[in-house]
Give the backbone structure.
Amino acid sequence: MAERWLGIVVSSDRVIIVDALVNGASPIVIQMDDTWTLQEGDRPQAYRVMHQRIADYARENGISRAVIKGSAVSLRGTKKVHLEAAELRGVVCCALAGVTTVVTPTKALISRTFGNRKVDAYLKDDGFWAKQIGVGQLRIGSREAAFGIVAGRP
């Protein structure tokens, strides 16, 4: 039976979100591909708004699983944008955990457990994506969010 999944990548001020219909190993069907930007101004208030928006979307659309790209260790040192991204990722995780199942695999983990290439090689491979998307449009910049869905299928 098909399920609705979200694939999500969070940065310091935006959330790339892909909503897809998943039916086993069949190609996914893109329902929505968008970038939600954190409102300007007071960050705690903006977090509250983003939390509500994401929770409402998941609830209203019957999302059964969310795959959020997990945090990775930065070899170049932690900067403010990394901390802000971690804060926003926490907001997104919290919003979705109240509605659906949430997993947060890292890029390194997916590279070790999916296929025989690293994630970046799959992200660049147009032929791979032509086989993975059954119906709907996926922006090239959203492939990493969608990859969490593709790699997490049963």
Observations:
- Helices lie at 43-60, 80-97, 107-113, 119-124, 126-132, 143-152.
- Residues 3-152 form a domain with the Nucleotidyltransferase; domain 5 fold (CATH 3.30.420.10).
- The radius of gyration is 15 Å.
- The chain has six helices and six strands.
